[in-house]
Design brief:
The protein has a single domain, classed as Carbamate kinase (3-Layer(aba) Sandwich). Helices cover 35% and strands 22% of the residues. The protein is built from nine helices and 19 strands. It has an eight-stranded mixed beta sheet with strand order 5-11-3-2-14-18-19-17, with helices on both faces. A four-stranded mixed beta sheet has the order 10-6-12-13. α2 packs across α3.
Length: 330
């Protein structure tokens, strides 16, 4: 803090009863040049951390989750390329590693923003495990995209050289896909609750959480990546949050994205979004998981979901940007 600057507590941070869970997309923390070493993660994180700080100051009770699709893909690629030199880590360890370094990044940049504003809110990054079922059918049908995008020739080469399962991702190219079982329970939930109740900003459940199964008294990691949006919605429900924010690559949800009949959605009801899902108007592996997670949150007691891109979050919370989904009439 600069000399002479007065540190203040956030307005009601520990006293306000409202809680907001914000899910930050992993793609917003990387860039097309990342594979070539051209990545300024602090700059990329700065915009969303400015908004997160504002939410914490004026709403209180902020919990941050984040994706790790590109980052865990990079970890898996490093493991594959270095396998002849060092033993590769399990996928669960790769998820834990990305939780650690993305959590560190967000914790540091968000802390910098709060320090500059003279606001005293502790920020904690928590390594988080999420229980899944060992017989979840997702283990037999990999579907979760991870890592960078490839063109068709690159994808075929990766499948031949590494034995990866590759699928086309919403018209944007090909990506590796891995199993994505449903989250059953967040093992560190009560720790998160305690920290939030104490007025802290908590970064947790990164990359959907470390996937684990229970074997008697023990838990062990399994090779999978849980969908971040579904874990975030589960976390928001268990914490009794009123608002669930999804920060993603697009400023507003569109039905039939990328097609001639593409149409943006500003406001919608839970029932309207369910109809869009039934009509198949959202892409699997792209917006569909986010909409399903949103519907689940609202059905289990949530008040509203806001979906938008970094730079638009505060305006979206005020109803001036993004997509807002609520109960009843809008």
């Amino acid at each position: 803090m600069k000399p002479g600057k007065v540190r203040t507590k956030a307005v009601g941070a520990a006293r306000m009863t409202s809680r907001t869970v914000v899910a930050v997309g992993g793609n917003s923390l990387t860039s097309p040049g990342a594979a070539n070493g051209n990545l300024d993660t602090h700059r990329l994180a700065r915009e969303v951390c400015e908004e997160l700080a504002t939410i914490a100051q004026y709403r209180g009770g902020v919990v941050i989750t984040h994706g790790n699709g590109p980052q865990v893909g990079f970890e898996l690629l490093r493991n594959s390329m270095a396998a002849s030199v060092v033993p590769p880590d399990g996928m669960d360890v790769n998820v834990a590693a990305t939780q650690g370094y993305i959590g560190y990044l967000l914790q540091q940049v968000l802390g910098d923003v709060l320090e500059e504003r003279g606001v005293d809110i502790p920020v904690t990054a928590l390594v988080t495990q999420v229980l899944v079922a060992p017989d979840d059918p997702a283990f037999q049908d990999p579907s979760k995209p991870v890592g960078p995008f490839y063109d068709g020739d690159e994808a075929r080469k990766a499948m031949e050289e590494h034995g990866w399962v590759m699928k086309e991702d919403a018209g944007r190219g090909w990506r590796r896909v891995v199993p994505s079982p449903k989250p059953r329970r967040i093992l560190e939930l009560e720790t998160v609750r305690t920290l939030v109740n104490a007025g802290q900003i908590v970064i947790c459940a990164g990359g959907g959480g470390i996937p684990v199964v229970r074997e008697g008294y023990k838990v062990r990691g399994v090779p999978a990546v849980i969908d971040k949006d579904h874990v975030s919605a589960l976390l928001a429900t268990r914490l009794e949050a009123d608002t669930y924010v999804i920060s993603t690559a697009v400023p507003r949800v569109c039905v039939n994205f990328g097609r001639p009949d593409q149409k943006p959605i500003e406001h919608a009801t839970l029932e309207e979004m369910e109809q869009h899902i039934l009509r198949g108007e959202f892409a699997e592996g792209s917006m569909l998981p986010k909409i399903r997670a949103s519907v689940g949150f609202l059905k289990h007691g949530g008040e509203r979901v806001v979906i938008t891109s970094p730079g638009n979050i505060i305006r979206a919370l005020d109803g001036q940007a993004g997509t807002t989904i609520v109960h009843g009439t809008v």
